[in-house]
Write the C-alpha cells for this entry.
Amino acid sequence: MSDEEVRDDGYDDFMDALEEGEPYYVECANGHASLPPRRLCPECASDDLEEAPLPETGELLTYNVTHVPTPAFEDDVPFVLGIAEFGDVRLTGQVRADSEDVEVGDSVSFGTDISETNGERYIAFDLA
Ligand SMILES: [Zn+2]
C-alpha cells in the first residue's frame, strides 16, 4: 500500500477485523456500545472506551431490495440491503441471499465482500 493512499483508519481496521473473523465494537464505561472509529462515546461523550468482541450472529431488523443503487454499487443490483443487530450494535450490510429467502427476524452472520462495481469492501450478511 502506498503512502498516498487515503485510509480511514478506524473503518478500515474494523473491516480488516471483520474479514479476519475477529470483529469488535467499542464500549464505554457506562456500557454504551458503538462502532469504531470512535474516540468518544456518542451517547455520553465518555472517552473511556474499550474494544469488545462482536457476537457472531445477529438478528435482521429490517431489509429492502435495492434495484436503484448508488453509483458505487450499480453493477451489484439487485441486492438486499439489511440492518441487523449484533448484541447492542447495529450494522448495515448486503444480505447474500435471494430476496424471497429473507425475512425480518432471520439470524445472520457477517463478513465482508467486494463490490463488483468499484472493488470496495463492504459488510455482507449471510443467513445463519
Ligand atoms: Zn457512553
